[in-house]
Hints:
Layout: E1 5-8, E2 11-14, H1 15-27, E3 35-39, H2 45-56, H3 73-76, H4 91-94, E4 101-104, H5 113-117, E5 121-126, H6 129-143, H7 153-162, H8 170-183, E6 188-192, H9 193-198, H10 200-211, H11 217-222, H12 224-231, H13 234-239, E7 248-249, E8 253-254, H14 273-287
Parallel strand pairs: 3-4, 3-5, 5-6
Antiparallel strand pairs: 1-2, 7-8
Helix pairs in contact: 2-10
The structure holds adenosine-3'-5'-diphosphate.
Adenosine-3'-5'-diphosphate (A3P) binds next to helix 2, helix 6 and helix 13.
Protein name: Sulfotransferase
Family: Belongs to the sulfotransferase 1 family.
EC number: 2.8.2.-
Amino acid sequence: LSDYIYLYKDFWVTSYVLTGIISFQKNFQAKDTDIILVTFPKSGTTWLKALVYSMVNRKIFSLDNTPLNATNVHDLVPFLESNIYRNGQNPGLSGIPSPRVFATHVPYPSLPESIKSTTCRIVYLCRNPFDNFISLWHFLMRARPKDLEPLSLEYCFDKFCTGACGFGPFWGHFLGFWNESLKNPNKVLFLMYEDMKMENKLQMKRLADFLGYPFSENEEKEGVIEEISKFCSIESMRDLQPNNSGNKVLERFDVASFFRKGEVGDWMNHLTPSMADRLKKVVEEKLGGSGLNLKLFG
Ligand code: A3P
């Protein structure tokens, strides 16, 4: 975009979100029943928000009268680093009924202490960095002020590979939550975008079990999982009125710009073989030996 980027603690932060991150770290008090969705930007946050919100509220709202039909998903499941605290108070968070569902892009070591010390659950959604990068590039291009030169793919790619982009480096982000999910599997569930695409039902069951909202046999027979899955698909979500009516996220991104292709492997349409080779080497160097096996080629 047109913003400065800072190295804050051990990750890069874009200027407009830095105050919000510090405010979140300082003020946020997690409750035991909270659900915190964490992602590196552009790895399917919006999708995960819709799925988890629909899943945990399924006994309260039917899909015909879910608030998702009236309010955009980013307002219902807010980013905790949105700059919303004033003097330690956050009126926007006070009236939310439990289980509260929130999202953040903040890496594990920098999460507020109360998220770590309470029994609240963390769901991490990871996407292969190739598609993640392409998605990020499109998103930044779309949000960039029209009077500035377009962002070149090569420039952005170089920054992404060196880690210097918002909440980067991606490998540190992935590893923080991956290692924590191995140490504490009841606290952190590690999901992959590609698995969610290929075997959505299975992953939704995993998610529901982890969150303590398992699908009953009856619900399975009645096709409840498929209904939620279809409702939260990109085709259905992008057509919901609040998601395409000009609403903004963080006062700058169109809600509609969070729904693009939603596919696995789009990077093949954009990256040259040498670019792909470079990123593959970064992944091998930084994540090799961690046990984290990314679905790199769909
Ligand atoms: P693409 O740009 O590759 O299409 P985030 O929500 O973290 O900002 O990530 C946005 C990415 O998730 C975009 O990827 C977007 O199209 C995709 N996405 C949004 N909603 C989705 C859904 N319901 N199912 C699958 N992918 C979705």
